[in-house]
Design goal:
It is built from five helices and no strands. It is mainly α. The structure holds zinc ion (ZN).
């Protein structure tokens, strides 16, 4: 086990990877006219990803947290929460086909119970 302070636990690294993939998928299908042909995220989606990363890093549940969508602690600002929910609603089902392993792990994490303290 290599979980030194300052390094995100693997569990959080995986969620970060999942949310990044979901945002990328959503952005490409919704904001293609903004980002141009070279890909990458538009400004709005980059900001959303940055925000999601920050929330993950500060999450009080740490490695035992459920996925953000199922978390009882609503740490997102309402506006950001609405955006990330739209992303998950759109990309969730599509992710299963594109990233089956990542998504299966994500779904399995949903059933974890948050432990406080
Ligand atoms: Zn976008």
């Amino acid at each position: 086990m290599d979980e030194r302070p300052g390094r995100p636990p693997r569990r959080l690294a995986r969620e970060e990877k999942t949310i990044a993939a979901m945002i990328a998928l959503y952005c490409r299908d919704h904001h293609a006219d903004v980002v141009g042909p070279d890909g990458g995220l538009c400004g709005e989606c980059s900001a959303l990803l940055e925000y999601a990363r920050l929330r993950l890093a500060k999450c009080r549940y740490g490695a035992d947290k459920p996925t953000c969508a199922n978390c009882e602690t609503h740490c997102y600002r309402p506006e950001m929460r609405a955006r990330v929910r739209a992303v998950m609603r759109y990309s969730g089902p599509r992710m299963l086909r594109r990233h089956p392993v990542l998504t299966a792990a994500h779904l399995a994490d949903r059933h974890k119970t948050p432990r406080t303290g």
